[in-house]
Amino acid sequence: MLDTMQQQSDHDIRNRLLIARLPAMPQILIKLIEHLQADDAGMPELAALIAKDAAMTSKILTVANSSAYHRNQRTVGLEQSLVSLGTDMIKTLVISESVFQTFNSFPHSSSTDLRGFWKGSLTTAVIARDIAKQMEYPHVEEAYLAGLLHNVGRLALLATAPKEYSFNFMARDDEDLCAVEQRTLQITHTEAGAWLIERWHLDSFLADSVLYHHEPIARLESAHPLIRIVRLAHLLCCHEDQQQAIADAGHLVGLDADTLELIVKNAARQVEKSAAYLGIELAGVDDVPVPSAYAPPPPVDPVQQRLSEEVRNMVLVSEMGQTFARQQGETGLLEAMTRSARILFDFETAVVLMENPTGHALHGTPTGEHQQRLAEFAIPLTKGGVVAASALERKLAYIGRDSPLNVAEEQLFRIIGTESMVCLPLVANQRCLGVLIGGAPAWQMPSFQKRERFLQSFGTQAAAALETAISERGHAKRQIAHVAEEYREASRRVVHEVNNPLSIIKNYLSVLDGKLAKREPVVGEMSILNEEIDRVGQLINGLADLQPTESSRVTNVGRVVDDVLRLFRATDFVPASVQIVVRMQEEPAEIDGDADLLKQILVNLIKNAVEALADGGKIEIANRGHVNRERKLYLELVVSDSGPGLSAEVLANLFSPVRSGKEGPNHGLGLSIVHGLVKKMQGLITCRSGKTGTTFEILLPARGSTSQVAGVSTRAMDSV
Question: How many CA atoms lie within 13 A of 388 on its CB side?
Answer without folding.
Answer: 17
